[in-house]
Write a structure and sequence with these properties.
The protein has nine helices and seven strands. By secondary structure, the protein is of the alpha+beta class. It has three domains: 110 residues, no CATH class; 83 residues, Helix Hairpins; 145 residues, 2-Layer Sandwich (Heat Shock Protein 90). The longest helix has 51 residues.
Length: 370
């Protein structure tokens, strides 16, 4: 409901709520501002018309009372100078309210084309011009954010690739110089580093495809419980070597869903890898599969590790984000989020320092997927 007219300088009306500012600043105040602007412009136009009418009446009166060349000249002068003056005044107003702001936007656009994303334009002038300036500033801010992300991504990729390449280079140079003997142990270390490098490149490829929408999913009816058991079996030896107990809690016959079995298996594997890496000896990692809403499925991986503080939870799915004691690439959770989102599902993390972390994701049922 719009408030009745009340000039802003007259104080708060007695019926206005105490917890709301007067004059209104939001959408309720816009009708009042619009009316004032309209009446102000109407008054200026009326004053200009009245000025012309007065000048015309005086000129006609002078011509009727004393017709002469001077009176005719006065009429012509008034009839020509006054409209010309008004026209110049209108042009000056348009220049101030339209031309100058547009010139500022054009100059700023040239700077953005040159790579300067810090430029912003003042939001002034007529309402459409202000809207244009606001949209330009929003666009420039987003371009700046994307440029920052791109630079950070390039730096992170270079950093992650440098470590295995440095190890491989050092080992090969040592083998050529005779520092290391070409025994199976040295060759196995080289092979392990190539596996790390290959995994990182494949992770980057998967991440790029999922974020660009170019990831192709081979969907079929799958049993998520069977996938979870296979993943636990594959990571059983790693868990045994770390002294961590690995369990599965799942129904015998969960509802089948349409999904890419390879990609969902990759998601569970990434979550298990992170959980085992962060769980000390004697801890437990549990994979739980449950029936979700509307025929969907929910999968969670819970560990008894050191947990994460709230600020780490907020950035857990960011690219290349790693905790202070993490030894991974920082891409596992980011890839898991992209793969789950490609299936129309959701993933989230919860943790409490000293009591472990839980990463859970849901996949929609056939009836709810569009």
């Amino acid at each position: 409901m719009r408030p009745p007219f009340c000039p802003p300088g007259k104080g708060r009306p007695p019926w206005w709520p105490d917890n709301e500012a007067w004059p209104p600043r939001g959408s309720m105040g816009r009708p009042y501002v619009t009316r004032v602007r309209f009446f102000r412009r109407f008054a200026m136009l009326a004053a200009a018309v009245l000025l012309l009418a007065v000048c015309g009446v005086l000129s006609l009166t002078s011509f009727v009372v004393a017709p002469s060349a001077q009176s005719t000249g006065a009429i012509l002068f008034v009839g020509a100078i006054v409209p010309i003056g008004l026209m110049f005044a209108m042009l000056a107003s348009l220049r101030r309210r339209v031309a100058r702001p547009l010139a500022g936007v054009m100059e700023a656009a040239d700077r953005v084309a040159g790579g300067d994303y810090d430029v912003r334009v003042a939001e002034h002038g007529m309402p459409p011009v202000r809207a244009l300036a606001r949209a330009f500033n929003t666009m420039t801010e987003r371009l700046q954010n994307h440029d920052t992300l791109r630079r950070n991504l390039m730096a992170d990729v270079a950093h992650e690739l440098r470590t295995p390449l440095t190890v491989i280079q050092g080992k090969l140079e040592g083998l050529l110089d005779g520092v290391y003997q070409p025994d199976p142990g040295q060759l196995q270390q080289l092979l392990d580093e190539t596996h790390v490098l290959s995994r990182l490149v494949e992770d980057l490829r998967t991440l790029a495809l999922s974020e660009s929408g170019g990831l192709k999913l081979q969907k079929e009816s799958i049993d998520v419980t069977a996938l979870a058991r296979d993943a636990v079996l594959a990571y059983g030896r790693d868990a045994e070597a770390r002294g961590v107990r690995l369990d599965v809690e799942a129904p015998d016959a969960p509802p089948p869903i349409d999904a890419d079995a390879v990609r969902i298996r990759e998601v569970i594997g990434n979550l298990l890898s992170n959980a085992l890496r962060d769980t000390p000896a004697g801890g437990t990692v549990v994979v739980r599969v449950e029936a979700g809403a509307n025929g969907g499925v929910s999968v969670s991986v819970r560990d008894t590790g050191r947990g994460m503080p709230p600020e780490a939870i907020a950035r857990a799915f960011d690219r290349f984000y790693k905790g202070s004691e993490s030894r991974g690439s920082g891409l596992g959770l980011t890839i898991a989020r992209g793969l789950v989102a490609a299936h129309g599902g959701e993933i989230h993390a919860s943790s409490e320092p000293g009591r472990g972390t839980t990463i859970a994701f849901t996949l929609p049922g056939v009836a709810t997927r569009t």
